[in-house]
Amino acid sequence: MASNSQRPSKAERTASAREQAQQMRVAQEAADKRKSLLIKLGVVVAVLAVVALIIGIVVQNNSGKVADSGAVPKGGNEAGGITLTSDTTVADTSGLTVDINKVGTAPAQAAEPSPRDSEAAAKGEPINLLIYVDVNCPHCSTFEAEYADQIGAWLAAGDVKVEYRNVAYLDSGSPTNFSSRGANALACVADAAPASYLPFSKALFAQAAEGELKNAALASLAKDNGADVENCINDGTFRSFVKFTDEASRVDSIGGTPSVFVQNELWDPNAEPDLVGVVNAAIKANK
């Protein structure tokens, strides 16, 4: 049997209990501090993530307000179009500018589509095709898939001139202004590498199912099709031109995309679904 001298005294037991309690309090305080720090770090990470998202959206939107006036790409015109004279060349234009303050006023009520500066080609000349498209438009993607190669063939044969007016009607539903950024990319390619315009355009519309592209992906796609236009895309060099094209199309009562004018006559796919037949007939009639 153990003697009383071997058992801790009451004072010793009390001191030991106080020490254990103190150790527990210290441990708990340390745990609370770690928890508080983790919560604060979590908040900081969340805030940084939101900031990064905002910065990403701003960057994709080519940060800042788009200027009202700006340069027109080579091959472009003051109506907001880009004209292809063959499958590898654009119209001989350069040094032009546009100003949205001179675009005009949209009609108060619905009006017949009336594209500015558009006319039928003279007898004996390649006929004029005027095409309004939006890179974020599913119907435009379908149109390009069906007709891009045929349009290229007509251009290569010298039977047509094709003017593309790349609008941004669908920016209202896009967090990154993809319609405007895609149209800017097309203008960049026309300006720097006209022979790449049709291949890039076809590739751009073909990826529609994958969703909106970031600027880096647009630049990569352009480069894959022979155009090194990364700086032009990131800088939004022709965003003012796109802004003008879009607003001019609304003023001219172009109701949707794709809209196709053959010799200045609006093609109605419901009344005449055979666009190839319509264009071939116009080519033959203009010989």
Automatic annotation (TrEMBL):
Claim: Transferase is one of the keywords in the record: yes
Which residues belong to any copy of the Thioredoxin-like fold domain?
129-272
Q: Which domain of life is it from?
A: Bacteria
The enzyme's E.C. designation: 2.7.11.1
Name a Pfam family for this protein.
Thioredoxin_4
Q: Which GO terms describe its molecular function?
A: protein serine/threonine kinase activity
Keywords, alphabetical? Kinase, Membrane, Transferase, Transmembrane, Transmembrane helix
Q: What is this protein called?
A: Serine/threonine-protein kinase pknE
Q: From which organism does this entry originate?
A: Paeniglutamicibacter gangotriensis Lz1y
